[in-house]
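Appendix C reproduces, verbatim, an entry submitted by the partner laboratory led by Prof. M.T., so that reviewers can inspect both the input and the predicted structure.
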Amino acid sequence: FLVTGSLLLGTVFGNHLGGRDYEALRYEQAATQYRAQQRWTGFVEQWKAWFNSGTAEYSAGQHFAAVEDLRVALDRVPEAGPLPGGPAGSKAPGSPECRVRTNLSLGLEAMGDDAAATDDPGMAAVYYAEAQEAIAPCTTDPQNEESSQRQKDKEDQARQNDGAPPEEPEDDPTDEPTDEPTDEPTGEPTADPTTEPEDEATQDPQREELEERQREAERDRQEREERGRGGTGGSGQNW
């Protein structure tokens, strides 16, 4: 009983010191006090030490450490029941679980802002999406709903900044030549260079030469026939 009482007394005293520093805006000192309580938290409301340290770290701008502690708090906080009369999956915004989810969502959003500031829109979009997922069951509260919509807008902007222009299709016929014949007729006949007509100026002399050779062949044939008959010409002389 003495040990248990000492732990409880130390926890209360540590929380008091942390709360005093937090109210005085000494967030880093408050986070140190709350982190010290994580070793002595016992079995009752274990989530509070990580919730308090995560909240103080968030206020101090230590966003990564805040998200890590708030994740532990979410694992340890009692699960809230469904909100009576609310949408499916919704939980009471004032429940301990929604309190943890709200701060975890804000921490993730801050990490998204940090990533966007360092020109990493892809990672920023991931954090913004996770922030919306964390707070989704608690958006029946107007303030949480506003935070979720803000995070959605930031995610859309981050994805737009991270987007690349669409790649051109590889089979675009206007970009690369193809050896395949086209299926569409062109409407114009294709001239075969081997069937082009020859020039008339070069064709006439060849025709005249051929006719002259035919005439000479005819004369030779007639002369051979005359010699074979032994005939004479009109002058009365032998051939």
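The first helix runs from residue 2 to 23. Additional entries are available on request from the coordinating office.
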